[in-house]
Amino acid sequence: MRPVSRFGPHRWPVSLAHGPVGLRPIRRRDARAWFEARGRNGGWTTPWDGTRPSDAAEDDFTFEQMVSRFNADARAGRSLPWLITWTEPGGRPVLAGQMTISGIVWGSARWGMAGYWVDRDLAGRGIAPTALALAADHMFGPMGLHRLEVAIRPENTKSLRVVEKLGFRFEGTRPAYMHVDGAWRDHLMFALHAEEVGPEGLIGRLPPPRTRATTGEDSS
């Protein structure tokens, strides 16, 4: 049985955009650009990337298997896995990062958790807050979900600024909450409920995305 949103059955694929920032599903043909971006940003994202404990039994999987799993989970309403794109004036969209709403629960809970990263070469243009606002507005609007959480390591000051810009509420610290960068790490928890967002959406809380970098953004 498909999850039911306030506008009927949940649908996937979904693409969203605001100015030069876009969210779209990940495709198999994105493999080359995705691996290039991840390789180029290894030192930038590794301190915040989820890792597997040494006793984890999960097998590694290929990019194609990852995309298939993402799309299956998205169609089932368990996650929203997007690539973030950025388009310069007169240019073509380029891969700018990744935005995933994972762990979506329906029924009486209706919540999910956001995680994201942005290419360091494109940081400082308002991409991460815009992408998170787009994802949240889709969750709270067409999907009819109630709660969005973001877990951020205390050291990730750039990502902390992202949730601050969007008005997420700090809810406390969760010790050893997630395995990140090779160890169980404490995380600060932020959340937002649908009724805390006005008719202008989270997008309405942001200035237009910038076309030239001024300050850095990071991943969560």
From TrEMBL:
Q: Which UniProt keywords apply?
A: Acyltransferase, Transferase
Q: Which terms in the Gene Ontology molecular function aspect does this entry carry?
A: protein-N-terminal-alanine acetyltransferase activity
According to the record, the residues making up region (Disordered) are: 201-220
**InterPro entries assigned:** Acyl_CoA_acyltransferase, GNAT_dom, N-acetyltransferase
- Annotated N-acetyltransferase domain residues: 21-191
An example GO CC term for this entry is: cytoplasm
Q: Has keyword Transcription regulation?
A: no
Keyword Transferase belongs to the record: yes
Q: Which SUPFAM superfamilies match?
A: Acyl-CoA N-acyltransferases (Nat) (SSF55729)
Highest taxon in the source lineage: Bacteria
Annotated family: Belongs to the acetyltransferase family. RimJ subfamily.
Fetch the PANTHER family from UniProt. [RIBOSOMAL PROTEIN US5]-ALANINE N-ACETYLTRANSFERASE (PTHR43792:SF8), GNAT FAMILY, PUTATIVE (AFU_ORTHOLOGUE AFUA_3G00765)-RELATED-RELATED (PTHR43792)
What is the name attached to this protein's record? N-acetyltransferase
